[in-house]
Design goal:
Layout: H1 2-8, H2 14-25, H3 31-74, H4 78-106, H5 110-124, H6 129-145, H7 147-150, H8 154-158, H9 165-176, H10 189-201, H11 209-221, H12 227-239, H13 247-279, H14 283-288, H15 290-318, H16 322-336, H17 341-358
Length: about 350
């Protein structure tokens, strides 16, 4: 976008572009799509906001919808299953690398490390991921504003032991009770739309948090997806152009066909359109707000824990032989060296095809 709109078209200067990137990071939703909306608004007002947002996400959504149709119609074919199995270890590595990359940026102090540990303990104890994300964001705001010390909680997060901070977040899990087996709920249009609206409304920070929330809501909570289907959906979303949020289109199609794809797409992207429209008059205050930045940092700290948990859970479900384990480690190493995710997904699929062709019989 910088190359297109700053360098080539000169619609913005670098300073304005950086300001819009920062503003998009401070509200829920896919940052790249929201940046497109902001640029559209700069050029043509609210109509430009809508047109730019739709133009940016529709190609990806349509591509993913076609692939979802093929997946549903042809997914039982052995060669398709082999390709998706070959890609699964790469997806695990991509999720783990996303957590690692975010963690290096946001986990820089004892208090942030304690918050990370607390988030992990809370989720493992059964606390809802959405509550943990927002809760760590709020605690980070309180910590940086000094209110924790005034309220007597200074030792909890910044004291010598540091582990006391696990108590508050872990209490969320205790209140939630033990983790129960998923109870399959009927995927009615209203429930499907409401579920994706809820997910889209709280997706601050990395788009990869979508993976954690999809697993929590649709695999563990509602029983609409299996672990394998979630891995396949992430692989398709990762290997196609556009925002990772287009994974929701694939998931919706798998759950309820074309109507499900439409409702999931509207649900996950609509909050971003609303957030951008509402935040535009507040951009100056948002950019200067220490509280907003602290909240986003807290959400990102919790996101690191969520991504680590999801990567471990998906690894247990998909890395079932030494070759798959080796593939995941090699893919992670290549990601650390800067190799693109699309190339790795393609390589995983190609290796799976070669192994299928070379297999005896």
């Amino acid at each position: 976008m910088r190359d297109e709109f700053v360098r080539r078209r000169a619609w913005l200067d670098d300073a304005a572009f950086v300001d819009l990137v920062g503003a998009a990071n401070l509200i829920p939703g896919p940052t790249s799509t929201e940046l497109a909306m902001h640029i559209g608004h700069r050029r043509a007002g609210r109509a430009g906001l809508v047109v730019a947002g739709l133009a940016f996400l529709l190609p990806a959504v349509l591509i993913v919808a076609v692939l979802a149709w093929l997946y549903v119609e042809q997914g039982s074919r052995p060669e398709v299953g082999a390709i998706l199995t070959g890609v699964a270890p790469v997806v695990v590595a991509i999720i783990a690398h996303a957590g690692w990359a975010i963690g290096r940026t946001v986990v820089r102090s004892r208090s942030s490390a304690v918050l990370l540990g607390g988030a992990v303990v809370a989720v493992l104890a059964g606390a809802p991921e959405i509550v943990v994300l927002l809760g760590v964001g709020v605690v980070t705001v309180l910590l940086r504003s000094g209110l924790t010390r005034r309220l007597g909680f200074g030792m909890v997060l910044g004291g010598s032991g540091g582990l006391g901070g696990l108590g508050g977040l872990g209490g969320l899990g205790a209140a939630a009770g033990p983790i129960a087996a998923p109870v399959v709920t009927a995927a009615t249009p209203l429930v499907l739309l409401a579920t994706f609206l809820k997910i889209g409304a709280v997706l601050f920070g990395s788009g990869y948090v979508l993976v954690a929330l999809l697993r929590s809501e649709l695999v563990d909570g509602l029983g609409w997806l299996t672990e394998t289907q979630l891995l396949d959906a992430i692989a398709v979303g990762q290997a196609t152009p556009g925002p990772l949020f287009s994974t929701a289109t694939f998931v919706g199609y798998v759950i309820a066909g074309p109507v499900g794809a439409l409702l999931a797409t509207v649900g996950v992207f609509l909050p971003a359109f609303v957030a951008v429209a509402v935040s535009i008059p507040l951009l100056g205050r948002l950019r200067r707000s220490r509280q907003a930045r602290a909240f986003l940092d807290g959400v990102n700290i919790a996101a690191v824990g969520l991504l680590g948990i999801v990567a471990a859970q998906l690894a247990i479900a998909s890395l079932r032989d030494p070759f798959a384990v080796t593939t995941a480690f090699v893919a992670f190493g290549l990601l650390l060296r800067g190799v693109g995710t699309v190339w790795l997904v393609a390589a995983g699929a190609a290796i799976a095809v070669i192994r299928l062709v070379a297999a005896p019989g």
